[in-house]
Amino acid sequence: MLLRLAYLSVTNALALLRLLPMSDRDKDAEILALRHQITILQRQLHGDRARFAPADRAWLAALLHRLPRDVLRNLRLLVRPETVLRWHRDLIASRHARISRPRRAGRPRTVRSIRRLVLRLARENTTWGYRRIHGELLVLGVKVAASTVWKILQQAGIDPAPQRTATTWQHSCAPRLRPSSPPTSSKPPR
């Protein structure tokens, strides 16, 4: 019993020497981390090893990530210091992923000015289809997909591919394409 008491007094004196160069913040973080580990172990007395819940990992990572690695290595942790740092990296990565996730799923809405321009072109040029409107928008420098023009016209109740009543290029080129009388040769018959 006396030998055990001497051993505990020497080890506690050495532990006190280790704590002297640490700041108060580091000491508080260590105390809180050790208390939390004790809570984890008390919860899992009947298990074969300590299992950390996601909340436990987040708590320990938040407490210990600011401590220098050499201080982390000297702590009495149930896991390696690299594991705590990995937990912190995972915590930051999941937070960044959650923040940078778009608010709405899917393709962003078309700008109102583009929508109005498409509808104006369709109203002023009733024989144009969605492909012609798309081409004119590209000439104007407006980058929008042909399928988006189709969808805008559909939603407005305008036929995206109207039947043309005006003459088409086939009708206007037809007189030039008709076969004429066979050519006459300038050679005399034999």
TrEMBL record:
Annotated spans, Disordered: 161-190
Organism: Plantactinospora solaniradicis
Ranges of compositional bias, category Pro residues: 180-190
Highest classification ranks of the organism: Bacteria, Bacillati, Actinomycetota, Actinomycetes, Micromonosporales
Entry protein name: Integrase
